[in-house]
Amino acid sequence: MPSTQTDLDHFITHLPKAELHLHIEGSLEPELMFSLAKRNRLDLPFKSVEEIRAAYNFSNLQDFLDIYYAGAQALRTEEDFRDLTTAYFDRAAADGVLHAEIFFDPQTHTDRGLPFSVAIEGILAGLAEAKAKHGITSELILCFLRHLDEEAAFATFRAAEPWLNHIKGVGLDSSELGHPPHKFARVFAAAGAAGLKRVAHAGEEGPAAYVREALDVLHIDRLDHGNHALDDDALVRELAERQITLTVCPLSNVRLCVVPDISAHPIDTMLAKGLRATVNSDDPAYFGGYVGENFKAVARGRKLSREQLVTLARNSFLGAFLDDATRQDYLNKLDAYAQLG
Ligand code: HPA
Ligand SMILES: [Zn+2]
Q1: Cβ of residue 170 lying under 6 Å from some atom of ligand 1
Q2: Which helix (H) or strand (E) holds 138?
Q3: Catalytic: which of 25, 204, 205, 293?
Q4: CA-CA to 4 of 20 to 30 Å: which in 143, 159, 322, 330?
């Protein structure tokens, strides 16, 4: 029934929410990729926006990563990173996002010769612009690439030192299988000692044992993805008891074949098991939708109630690295909206 769908879309779009799992490089839309390539006088291996989109047909995480790292090559200057960041926040604002905690992958840029400062200064300029334009608050999370070694992660952490007061936490992303969390135990310990939050991708393609390691060895404050945690009942009970936030990414899960279909997505199973699950977009330019589209996809695919949607939004504020007063302010906005809606 179209009118019901429109009501649901409207409810989701204006539902106050936080986004906690967003790779800023994964928000590079083909149109912006082309305009950056033109501005930077680069040759892209694609002739058109349509050709780029047609290449986004992945059967696993590595298929995606190969194209995601290639796309990131178009980013060359601080201005590029600022434009990328403001484009994401314009979309986020339209999707009812009040607060976003975004990842960036410095090694993707330093490994091709960009100084560490270029990506972070451009992103920070974009975050400041988003706050001024939309009032959206934000935090930045530096991700280590797990297919590289721990020494490279330490070198990145040292390079980040002058900006540590602008970085809320460290994360771990890229190819999961064969790169278990314990590979990064010492650099995560150093980040924790420096007062940073710790998060890690685990249980996306990797087994429940990687989620266990992320908890016990990396001492994570939040779990990115976590789908395969569901394979281990004791682990699920612990995640629920400790109210560890899971940053779940439904459209990413479908596009990377982590789940067979949106109608088989476990988001409501996670809620039913008492897990603090949230909905996020991961790499929206590659996976076909921003956070609002991710909410709409699971709402339809799993026939979620408004109460479940509000719980998912509440979880996003509970799981965010916010100060108590701001968190309460956002929760109050959500409660007021839920009562009206
Ligand atoms: O979903 C992801 N998984 C791992 N690494 C990533 N880097 C960007 N997106 C992802
Ligand atoms: Zn991710």
Answers
A1: no
A2: strand 137-145
A3: 204
A4: 330
pLDDT digit string, tens, across residues 66-82: 999 999 999 999 999 99
Is 238 a known active-site residue? Answer: no
Distance CA 337, CA 331 (A): 10
Tell if the pTM clears 0.95, that is, is over it. Answer: yes
- Three-state DSSP class for residue 62: helix
- What residues contact residue 125 under an 8 Å CB cut-off, 6+ apart? 78, 81, 82, 85
Number of folded domains that form the chain? 1
Q: Is 134 annotated as a binding residue?
A: no
Asked whether residue 5 carries a pLDDT value surpassing 80, the answer given is no
**CATH code of the domain in which 120 resides:** 3.20.20.140
| Lookup: tokens for 301 | 């695919």
Is the CB of 204 inside a 6 Å radius of any atom of ligand 1? yes
Ligand 1 atom 1: residue of nearest CA: 282
CB 239 within 8 A of CB 202: no
By residue range, what is the domain housing residue 254? 2-340
